[in-house]
Automatic annotation (TrEMBL):
Pfam families: IF3_N. The keyword Nucleus does not apply. GO terms for molecular function: ribosome binding; translation initiation factor activity. One of its GO terms (cellular component) is mitochondrion. Gene3D superfamilies: Translation initiation factor 3 (IF-3), C-terminal domain, Translation initiation factor 3 (IF-3), N-terminal domain. Belongs to the IF-3 family. This is IF3M factor. PANTHER family: TRANSLATION INITIATION FACTOR IF-3, TRANSLATION INITIATION FACTOR IF-3, MITOCHONDRIAL. Residues 11-78 form the Translation initiation factor 3 N-terminal domain. The keyword Zinc does not apply. It comes from the Eukaryota. Keywords: Initiation factor, Protein biosynthesis. One of its GO terms (biological process) is ribosome disassembly.
Length: 129
């Protein structure tokens, strides 16, 4: 079973690290602390701990409200939508400005088909001599 990346959200009480770097809900650093201290802080302020960066020493966690977590999930989803997909196909078409009318119609039909298939289309028009 391959290890898959967990979705952004509260980690609850399952924290595999002993020492964490904690950031409060306002974005201010609270420094490094033991996980028991972080859990106590989480309970006192009725917040949730969220893993921000795992590949640093010590890993960075942030105390967040449910609303902040929801907003962050929406932001990340928006960013993911905006970024180009790795399998995105880009088609490129190049023709002269002296192209015949029939040839131009044929090429515009081809472009329309590519756009329907959600391809990115790049058109280059060269100036005729």
């Amino acid at each position: 079973e391959p290890k898959r990346k967990a979705a952004f959200g509260s980690v609850g009480r399952r924290i595999p690290y002993r020492i964490l770097h904690v950031i409060n809900q306002d974005g201010e650093s609270l420094g490094n602390m033991h996980r028991a201290e972080a859990l106590k802080l989480m309970d006192q302020h009725n917040l949730k701990l969220v893993l921000l960066r795992e590949n640093v020493e010590p890993p960075v966690y942030r105390l967040m409200t449910g609303q902040q977590i929801h907003e962050e999930q929406l932001k990340r989803a928006e960013k993911k939508k905006a970024s180009p997909k790795p399998g995105m196909v880009q088609k490129e078409l190049s023709f002269s400005s002296a192209i015949a009318k029939n040839d131009l119609e044929t090429k515009t039909k081809q472009i329309a088909q590519w756009i329907e298939k959600k391809y990115h289309v790049k058109v280059t028009v060269r100036q005729a001599k």
